[in-house]
Amino acid sequence: MLIVNFSHVLTPAHLAAVERLTGRAVSGVVEVKTQFDESRPFAEQAQGLVDAAGLTSERWQTEPLLVCLPSYNYAAAAVLAELHGRAGYFPAALRLRPIAGSTPPQFEVAEILNLQATREEARRRR
Q1: Which of 20, 75, 115, 121 would bridge 90 by S-S if both were Cys, CB 3.0 to 4.6 A apart?
Q2: 46 near 79, Cβ under 8 Å?
Q3: What is the model's pLDDT at position 118?
């Protein structure tokens, strides 16, 4: 499984936790430096970030992916829309959470969000 990371650097402990939660080996991590300019349209910037991941159209559609979305909500929404357009589905998302009382601040893997399953379940409530 390939992780496309639009957020903070993932540690070996994060990757081990992902493998435990998913039951799949992490084949690689694509780090995408993410910074949004408030004065420019976010959709355009999201397209550039997803382009920067360097995956072909075929890989977006066929490779098992896990994404670590930007922590800024509007940026995450724009990146997620771009990813859905390229992959044809919502990829699973990695959620990190702060470790209580850690100094300096540290983060741990909280869960893997199956966004496609969430979408499909929500459609039943239409």
Answers
A1: 115
A2: yes
A3: 96
Q: List, as one string, the DSSP characters of the chain.
A: -EEEE-SSPPPHHHHHHHHHHHSS---EEEE------TTS-HHHHHHHHHHHT---HHHHHHS-EEEE--SSHHHHHHHHHHHHHHHSSPPEEEEEEEPTT-SS--EEEEEEE-HHHHHHHHHTT-
pLDDT tens digit sequence for 69-85:
999 999 999 999 999 99
- b (16+ CB within 10 A) / e for 27-61: eebebbebebeeeeebeebbbebbeebebeeeebe
pTM over the 0.90 mark: yes
> Which amino acid makes up residue 99?
I
Q: What is the dihedral of CA 72, 78, 81, 86, to 10 degrees?
A: -110
Q: In the block, which residue shows the tokens 């589905």?
A: 89
* Cβ neighbours, 10 Å, residue 21: 14
